[in-house]
Design brief:
With about 450 residues, this protein is mostly beta strands. The protein has three helices and 32 strands.
Length: about 450
């Protein structure tokens, strides 16, 4: 046995041993998830773990005609399957739909047992599926029934995530840059080879997704740039322009930090009534099944939201060294908690009329789910009502059934959201490799 075989065997043995340890952990959440949703979530005392407990369902995908469940008044259909880890969606003016297919670039060095376990966990759950590094175009078939046509639209991307169309310019946020393409209506394959607008933070790529949103006038692009660690364990030097929302000039590619201290801003939207920028964010791990709630919040220019020194406002994380009480004093409390470890990855303010009227003006959030809480949390699409530009009531599950009742099998996991011209809600499902379409009953 050479040293490389020994190293691989040693790593595998370590991973198996840790997997058994994780499987033996039985710590359950003690706070009902409903008490961690809203403007003032319950935050219990933080816990310390040598190895944090996990609950990992086996990713099995959708079998036969199985599909998610929807609440009364809605119906759901599959419009695309067999995709390669679909993450984000964009509806084009001609009603074609672009599907961004990607997963992490795999560039982060595996140097700790935690990272070994993370890889095993992702593969077991189906969330480690190979990403297509491409964009597929969906086009509704003549006659309108069955799954839509699929056309490979752009290939050879580098872990793409965010996508926006401004006029005749299509912007795609890879993990390391923003590319722009000349959009020609009707094309089923992009004819423009594309040019780079500007770079994005790309060292380590612990959090690789780069959410993307254009300003209403198209002159600025806003980018969600997640942290390179849980709580700076990889060093502060790799957190440059990380855990932040960046503002990018669409003409030059020059960028600046618009807001900071947001651990992983995975979705950006303009709130339709106030016109303010809002984000969803995934918070830190490893201090218990009940900490820390992921959230959505309005994003203030030059605002600081706590990471890594504090969470949910000014609750100090004592694991972070050195401490920064001066920054903690400035930390802004998020507007609305979504619950601990729900892993929000999709965000949409619904402005159409195709769904029942009660959904207009509020926010849909796709909760991808996490293995950091038992019982499971997330794995659903929820709706949060808004009034006067702010959340106005509890989050309501709308699309569920992504895992088995005993929480052992995972069929799918929702990510990107979009609305089409008919007002349908589109959902990218990266474990089922499906795009779902939700409409009102009878439509």
């Amino acid at each position: 046995m050479d040293k490389h075989d020994w190293s691989r065997g040693h790593t595998l043995a370590m991973a198996v041993g840790l997997s058994l340890l994780l499987g033996a952990c039985s710590e359950k959440a003690e706070v009902d998830l409903s008490r961690q949703v809203g403007g003032n979530p319950e935050l219990p005392k933080a816990k310390d773990f040598l190895v944090p407990p996990m609950q990992v369902p086996d990713g099995v995908g959708w079998k036969g005609d199985a599909k998610p469940q929807v609440v009364s008044g809605l119906q759901i259909e599959k419009i695309a399957s067999g995709l390669m880890h679909p993450r984000q969606l964009l509806v084009l003016p001609n009603q074609d739909v672009l599907v961004v297919e990607a997963n992490g670039p795999g560039e982060e060095a595996v140097t700790t047992p935690k990272q070994v376990i993370a890889g095993i966990v992702k593969n077991r759950s189906g969330k480690g599926g190979k990403g297509g590094n491409r964009i597929t175009l969906l086009r509704k078939k003549a006659g309108g029934s069955g799954e839509w046509e699929q056309h490979v639209y752009i290939e050879h991307l580098h872990s793409p995530f965010g996508i926006q169309l401004v006029g005749d310019t299509l912007y795609v946020a890879n993990t390391d840059n923003i590319m722009k393409y000349h959009y020609t209506p009707g094309e089923t394959r992009m004819s423009d080879p594309g040019t780079e607008l500007g770079d994005l933070p790309s060292t380590v790529n612990h959090h690789w997704t780069k959410a993307l949103l254009a300003s209403p006038d198209g002159k600025k692009l806003y980018v969600g740039s997640g942290s390179n660690s849980n709580i700076t364990e990889n060093g502060l030097e790799v957190e440059y322009r990380r855990a932040a929302v960046l503002e990018v000039d669409a003409a030059t590619g020059a960028s600046r930090v618009f807001a900071s201290g947001i651990r992983n801003p995975t979705g950006l939207q303009w709130e339709p009534q106030s016109g303010k920028l809002w984000a969803i964010a995934n918070e830190r791990d490893e201090i218990g099944a009940d900490l820390v709630p992921d959230y959505m919040t309005s994003v203030q220019e030059k605002g600081f939201y706590g990471w890594p020194y504090s969470y949910y406002g000014q609750h100090v994380d004592h694991r972070v060294k050195p401490q920064r009480p001066d920054l903690v004093k400035k930390a802004i409390k998020p507007d609305y908690a979504l619950g601990s470890h729900v892993a929000a990855l999709g965000f949409l303010f619904y402005t159409a009329d195709g769904l029942p009227p009660k959904y207009k003006g509020g926010a849909f959030v796709a909760e991808h789910g996490s293995w950091d809480r038992s019982p499971l949390s997330g794995y659903q699409v929820v709706y949060v009502p808004f009034a006067n530009g702010m959340p106005n009531g509890p989050a309501q599950p709308v699309v569920t059934g992504f895992h088995s009742a005993d929480e052992k099998e995972l069929y799918g996991a929702p990510v990107g959201l979009a609305q089409d011209a008919a007002g349908a809600l589109l959902i990218a499902d990266d474990v089922g490799n499906v795009v779902w379409r939700v409409t009102s009953t009878g439509r």
